[in-house]
Model the fold of this input.
Amino acid sequence: IRNEIKSPKSSIGFISFSKTYLQSLQDRGKHNQYSSDNSRIKHLITFIKEKDILFSEIDLSLLKRFDDYLIKTRKLSPTSVRNNHNVIRSLFRKAIDEGIVEEKYFPYGNKGYEIKKVESAKVGLIAEEVSQIENIELDPTTNMGIARNMWLFSFYFAGIRLGDLLKMRWSDIQDERLLYKMG
Done:
């Protein structure tokens, strides 16, 4: 019988855990989520100077300094800062669920870092503006023509996501209806 010495789960660092998480996204074909989460995780990795810190080292002080870095150095918007924290918080929860870190180290919530809700103004187009976009003379084979046509398609299908739009085929239209699964 061979005894193997295993390192405790609590010694798994943020970077190692993140790489495993990102690989699982790729393996499951979650390419859009991989792309956005990867860039957000890289922000924290760059901020901590690529030193694989333990989850228990991610505390309120570090998160506030990370905010300053995102805002002052990376010049990110409040929404982008919030999205970075959402990914870190999600990874922290996964690490807790997997027994890598104890709940007591969770830096978000009541007495920890509060992820602020960001109000964003939505500005819609009036019918005349949509009509102007429809009537612009563009070669449909150019990038500008393709972009306009895709935008109009999305607009007329209640804001269908670009990722879903790019996956569509003619066979998705059945009985004069568009049938697709939202990604």
